[in-house]
Every structure is written in structure tokens, then in C-alpha cells.
Amino acid sequence: AAPAAAAARSGEEPTTSTALIGLLLRVQSTALRALGPDGFDPKRYVDLPLSTDARAAAAALPSPDKPPPSRAEMERYLARYFGAAGSDLVPAAAELEDFEAEPRGFLPRVRSRAARAWALEVHALWRLLARRVARGVAERPERHTLLPLPRGVVVPGARFREVYYWDSYWIVRGLLVSKMYYSAKDTVLNLVHLVQKYGFVPNGARSYYINRSQPPLLSSMVLEVYEATGDVKSVREAFPSLLKEHSFWTSEIHSVAIRDNRGHVHNLSRYQANWNRPRPESATIDEELASKINSTADKGKLYHQIASAAESGWDFSSRWMRNSTDMTMLATTYIVPVDLNTFIFKMELDIASFAKLIGDNETSEKFLEASKARHIAIDSILWNSEMEQWLDYWLPTDGDCQQGVYQWKSDSQNRDTFASNFIPLWLNAHHSGSVQFADTAKSERVMASLQKSGLLRAAGIATSPTRTGQQWDFPNGWPPLQHLIAEGLLHSGSKEAARLAEDIATRWVRTNYGAYKATGKMHEKYDVEACGKSGGGGEYKPQTGFGWTNGVVLSFLEEFGWPQHKGIDCSRRGEVGLTG
Ligand SMILES: OC[C@H]1O[C@H](O[C@H]2O[C@H](CO)[C@@H](O)[C@H](O)[C@H]2O)[C@H](O)[C@@H](O)[C@@H]1O
Fold it and tell me: What's the predicted TM-score (pTM) here?
């Protein structure tokens, strides 16, 4: 375990997979030359499990200075030396012991026949997304980029064949609605296992993802499972990993100190990957982008910013760009993000309450204090009382700071609107008995600001108002963002906010339903401009399946219900006006 963690921190994969990733990257670029860019997905090639000796596979690969193989030769080569991408994950529907076609107590408040029938279909999709890591992966890790996991997994779907960190939060939420308590617990304990091994939860369960994490929601998953099952044993098992993860996010490259105008120094966190090379899963794309840049050092800096944006989960978005039309202007690590600090604040509260639960009062006090300090930091650095939103904070790129402490400047808050500016509202739903993060009056003001923002659209909340062609921008709406904001509004103590929350959920459920009826699939993201339209943009083809989408729909149906006579198809209008 120790060498793997050290390797992860230094940005290197453990040696066994370094050689394999090197070979797969050569296969990836040969395949691009052989097959051409149309429909080319670089991720397929770094997901291929070796079926023979690596040396033989390397020797049979045409060298880059020779003409590329034909399509048929390329496919023959792949079939000879590799298994299919994803074949090292075994479909595990039959092993899901806690799946029932209609679990007792399933969505009692969903009374409409159409809504209920569809919810049962969405629930049944867990069977299609359930996998188990094949035994051969742990036996011969040098042949797989897939990381072995001890328990059953639920994957997002399609090209996302492996476990993803923040997706798992909504997968857990959905599994709990589906009464699949063991599967939810397995999901959490797999992530705990990854922290034990690497010191943090990697972006996804692949060796090429261990140079970065994703939005940290592990403590929230532990809490959800504990609240649903009362199982203190799992909390005890997870607890040391939560402490480790907290230190990963609050020290070294992730930590930032900012002095406010009254001289108080606040500690916050940022996204920052341990990587300055092309992302293996998208190496051909990253290299093409970097070809616009001359110096090797500057290319390395760009790769670092790209991987850091992937750590944010928002890959990619104008949110991380100095110029929204130019991807080479990514500056992710110079931004102190609202959502990341919201999640870490929540992590601190969760750890405090778990510590109390297991009788460790000293740690509980320490984390309560840490959460109070972060609350003050978020209020001081990220809150903007004029806009009534929390804003990302831009750090100077010229390294202008004294002994590692930046001086706060009001014009360094990013006044552009993003859905993430409203995510702290989510803390209203989960404050573990401590003081409400934003009281009802403040939540209402934030709600009014959301209503004026232009983000509320016909089919949900847009990620940003800017159309850039990036997938974390307009007109895409993403399931996690709908859920975080709607839950926050629902639990703010304001009736008006609760009505808006229900309206957002209604529009979202309808658009998911409409697209499902039209395509037979649940989509990774949706276009919020029209009901029933799936999303697009970005560097890969839109994906279906889809773990977090299903989790959010099931959670919304549980939280808001669906009355008998409420229409669910796209011809219906929302009951409440979205815009203010
Ligand atoms: O292959 C490109 C990128 O794909 C992932 O990101 C997207 O899908 C993830 C799984 O649903 C999701 O967690 C993330 O928010 C999406 O943007 C992957 O996480 C990236 O690291 C990867 O480079």
C-alpha cells in the first residue's frame, strides 16, 4: 500500500501499471492513426485488459514511424493481445442479493401510475449497472488499469465502466431509495478501501486516475448509509479513512490561505491534481490541445490545469477558464471553489458527529471547531452580499502572496454566475444538528438571486449561462447540481423556497421521463432548454446508463412524491413559475 500511495502523491502510477499505461498509450495513438478521429474514443484503449504477455503485445505494435495498420489489422491486433474494454468487470445482476423487482415500501408517495411504472424501470436499471471486478484483476494487476475492489460495484454506465467517486454519492442515494442497503454499503466500503490504499479517493477506480480525486462526498455517503441502516460498525470502519481524506483535502497542494481586510487568515481548499502530463484516458485530445503551445514547460502546466479541472468533476467549463473560448487558458488551481469548500465543511460536520457517535469527543470537538472556521472562511472570502451568492475566488497567477498567504481583494471574486454559486444551500438539508449554514431569511435572498440568475430554465437548472461547447456550461443541466440545489431550497425553512425546489424537481423528472420514453435510456446530462432533450458538448459522446441520473430521479420521487393526477410527460407545464 505505501509505495502505491507515495506514487500517487508524486503523480506516478505504481510501477506495475506504469508499464501497462505506457503500452496502452502507444496502442491508443496507433489506433487513432489507423481508425481516424471519427467516433474515436481514446478511453477505450487505456481500459483494455492485456490477455497475454506485455512484451509480446508491445513487439507486435507497429512503430510510430511506420505507416499505420489498416482498420482490420488494428482490430486483429487488439483481439490477439487484449480483452475487450470492460471485460474485466463482470455483470453482477445475479449477485445483487438485495434487489427486488418491487421492494416493500418503495416510493410510497408516488401515486401516479405512469410515474410509478417508470420509477420501477429506473430502479431495475441497477441490475444493468451492477458489476464485480473479475478475479484476474487482483491476481495479475500488471495486466489491468482497473483497480481491484473488494465488493460489488455500481458503475455510471456506457464508457464509464468503472466506479467514479462523486457519482457514487447519487448512486448511494438511489440505492437507498431502492432499499438496496447492502449494495449502498458495498459502494461506500469500496471507496474506504481506496482511501486505505492511496490516502484519498481517486477520481475513478483505474490506475490512470490515481493522480487526482473528485468532489469529496465520502463522509456524506457514510452518513446516508448510517441514517438508513443504523449500522455503527461501518461508521467505525470508515472513520480513519475520513480523517485521512480530510487531511488530503486540507493540506499541501490543496490548501490555500487568504488574509481578509481585517487581518484574519482563513484556510480554504482548491482542486489541484498531482499530474502534469496528458490524461491517459484522453491523451490524444490533450496532446492536440497542447500542440498550440510551444514550450514543454508550458505544455506541462496546461496538462496540470486540465487534470485539476477533471478533479473538480466539472470537466470542462468556462468556470475554470480565463477566457471562455480558449481551453488553453484553463487556470483551475488558481480558483478557490465554492462547491469544494461546501463539501469539506460538510465533511467536517460529518466527522464531528461520527466521532461523537463512536465516543471520541476530543476529535468531535476538533472537527466542530474546524467546521466553524471554514464557515467563517466561506462567509469572509466567498460570500458576496451584493449579489446574494457565494462566488469562486481567483488567486493571482503571478504568485503575489506573502509567506504563502494571499491578500483578499474584492474584485478577485468571480462575478460570473454558475450553478455552483448556490450549492452551499445544500447544507440546509444536512446540518447534523449544528447551526444552519444559511438561515431562512438568507436562503430566501439567495433563492431570489437564483431566480434572477437566468439559470432556471424550462427543464431544470443550467450549469452556467454561457454557451461554450464545454459540457459543464450552458445549455447542459447535470443531475447532481439539480439535486444539491433543490434539496437545499427544500430544507431552508422557507415555504416559497420549498415550492421552487418542487418545481425544479418536477421539471427535472419530466425531462428525464421524456428523454427516456423517446430513447429508452437515462442520460448522463440534459439540455435544460427543452423538456425531453439530452445534453451534449464536451470531448466525448453523450453517455447513457446512468448511475447518478437514476439516483437523482429516485431521490426526487422519494422527497417530493408524485400525486396521482400530476402529468409526467413533457406536454405538461411546471406548476410554479421558475423565473422571478
Ligand atoms: O474521459 C473524460 C473525463 O470523464 C470523466 O468525467 C465525466 O464523467 C464522470 C463520470 O460520470 C463524472 O464524474 C465527471 O463529472 C464528468 O465530467 C472523468 O471523471 C474525468 O476524469 C475524465 O477525464
Answer: 0.96
